Amino acid sequence: MEKRVALVTGGLSGIGKGTVLELSKKGYDVVIFDIQDEKADAVIELCKEFKGNVVYKHCDLFKSNEIKEGFDFIQEKFGRLDCAFNNAGFGILSKPFGEVTEKEIDMELGILVKAHMMCMIHELRMMKENGYGRIVNTTSGAGLVSSQGMALYSACKHAISGLTKGVALDYATQNITVNAIAPGTIETELILPYKETKPDEYAMWAKANPSERFGQPYDIARVVVFLFEEDSDFINGTIIPVDSGCVAGTRQ
Ligand SMILES: NC(=O)c1ccc[n+]([C@@H]2O[C@H](COP(=O)([O-])OP(=O)(O)OC[C@H]3O[C@@H](n4cnc5c(N)ncnc54)[C@H](O)[C@@H]3O)[C@@H](O)[C@H]2O)c1
Question: Where are the transmembrane segments (predicted)?
Answer without folding.
Answer: none
